Amino acid sequence: MAQLFPEFSTRVNPSPLVEDQATTAQRDRICDMYGCVYVCRKKATYIYFMSDTIYINHVIGDTLSLDTLSQKLSILQHSIEKTGSPTSISIWVPFAAAVVGGVLVWIGQAIERSTRKKTERKNNLLEIYAYCRKLEAEMKNNYRELAMAKVHVAYWWHAHQGGGSYMQRYYEEHLRSQAFAREVEKNIGNTKAAFIGHVRKFQALMPLHDSIDGQLETISELTNQKAKDYDPSVPHDKVRYQLVEQDEKDLREIYYENLITFKIINDNLQKLLKPL
């Protein structure tokens, strides 16, 4: 309140009528004309309200009536309250800004969560698809080894039946080939189960065609064909140098036909992933 110091205000020029001898009517006219409040009886002192700032026009001396000043200031405050004040607006502005800011933050977080979920879903689908391709390759390798093992089972049994000094060794090789064939068949069963499980996991994240149920059922019922048995009357050299290699190749191709369903499913998974 620097204006309350005994300096003369430069905002409003003092009037020669602002004197003690001025009549009440003259003072009222001055107040109406300058928009001020007369607050001193002995010295003509006026308070002006301009742009929310109070200016004192004249020195406030010792003869100023404090009661009268308090009363006039109350009147001035009442007049200001009637005209309204931007205070109520200034209160709502930060509140509205806070609300808008909170909504924007919430929207940003929602978009971020949605984007993160889509990315995680896509990555999970890609990971499942890649693993299904890996299982398909493992099945092919298992079938290759199974064809070899089963043909060798028949080959070593034929050699054992031929007799000779190596009959016991041939029998042991026969048993060894049987054990290896059973191990490969076990791996095939585990691989089929893993493949079916991962396809179902893919289906939980993305709908698949209705035919998937029948295809998975086909895989679960796949069987492993037996190798040819060699007649003991067939010379062992013929079996060894002519029949075994061709029989193993034929059996391998039969097993590879079981991979058709695996490939169909994996190709469908790949098509579904392209739009992502």
Quaternary: single chain
Count the beta strands.
Answer: 3
User: Which range best describes the helical content: under 10%, 10-25%, 25-40%, 40-55%, 55-70% or over 70%?
Assistant: 55-70%
**What summary fits the major beta sheet?**
3 strands, antiparallel
Terminal Cα separation, in Å?
A: 69 Å
**Radius of gyration from CA coordinates:** 51 Å
The total tally of domains equals 2
Major sheet strand order: 1-2-3
- Average of per-residue pLDDT values: 78
Q: Rough shape?
A: rod-shaped
Elements, N to C (H/E): HEEEHHHHHH
β-strand percent reads under 5%
Structural class: mainly alpha
Number of helices: 7
- Unreliable sequence segments: 1-22, 34-67
How would you explain this protein's 3D organization?
Residues 1-22 and 34-67 have low confidence and may be disordered. Strand 1 (36-38) and strand 2 (46-50) form a beta hairpin. The protein has two domains: 2-85, no CATH class; 122-273, no CATH class. Helices cover 68% and strands 5% of the residues. With 276 residues, the protein is mainly alpha-helical. The protein is built from seven helices and three strands.
